[in-house]
Design a protein that fits this description.
Structural class: mainly alpha
Largest sheet: 2 strands, antiparallel
Number of helices: 16
Order of helices and strands: EEHHHHHHHHHHHHHHHH
Number of strands: 2
Helix content: 55-70%
Amino acid sequence: MFSAAPTPRRALPPARAAADTDRTEATAGPSGGPEGAEPPSPKAGSRNPFFDNAKYLAIVLVAMGHSWEPLTDGSRAAEAFYMTVYTFHMPAFIIISGYFSRSFDMRKDRLQRLVTGVAVPYVLFETAYAFFKRWADDDPGQPISLLDPWFLTWFLIALFIWRLTTPLWQIVRWPIPLAVAIAVLASVSPDIGDDLDLQRVLQFLPFFVLGLSLRAEHFAMVQRRAVRIASVPLFAAALVMAYWAAPRMTSAWFYHRDSAQELGTTWWIGAVMTLALFGCSVVLTACFFSWVPTRRTWFTVLGAGTLYGYLLHGFLAKGSRFWGWFDDYGWLHTPLGEVAVTLIAGAVVTALCTPPVRKVFRFAMEPTMAWAFRKDPADTARARVSS
């Protein structure tokens, strides 16, 4: 799926100091939500193509994974690819989100961007998804509940919570072990409930904290030729392992939305699985990053629109199930059909990341909302002086 660049890759540039990192971009974290300060790319003041490339490739894998889900019951190969991709595509998004959150503090402008770039899209799309399900699934009783994220919106509420806790993770001595311990405890706590999808918030937390702890040189390390070469057998081994595990375990482990007891097993297995999946996810995410081009490509510009692709493709992903496409067209469950579904999913999410789509939906994804915030007295004073 990913090919090595024919020319030598440039090392990633050093990150900008926190005091200078005020620039914010919209990601998708799955891609979803603003990413905080962005480190400079080789040309000062421009975007770093590596991160845009990584976000685009990851959102394509997210869309492909959703297209494979209806095929997994009848295809062991589809289930193996599904499990493998789900091991690292969301962790990759979350690590990037954490990396770009390193400069987040409670400063007024950053809090405003958190509200407009994460909280507002969450409210709008949680509401839109509820109305869509009422219509497309003939389910007039579908509630509009901002406390119970539906489908893709969980990432937005998770990012909102993670971002607010950033100052805490920057002052503790061992942030990653602490975050892993919290994830393990969450995985064995069935009483957490569904409010704000806290199971996912807590179980995916270590990846966000890992991103907070990374530096530019860490991304440069995985770009080494030796890592790219090693990633080939590692991915092959992951696929073989997933093929073996497909009929023996549930893929729900990869969603991180349930405790071990809710998955029908004992608490200690939940602890073991959380630790094992965290290790596997980190390894495969590093392999994924090793194959991401560091130079500008034709899809680099699409990396800035992954939030759009992430949230908008959900309507088609769910609609295809509500309208029974995978049941009505049996050929989709053949090898040729699986390839076609994969290509269509990639093409659709690519189109949804393009500038024209972003222009149409910017009001929902990146609203300015200056009317909603108090003006800073210092800014008002400076404006009067300049006039």
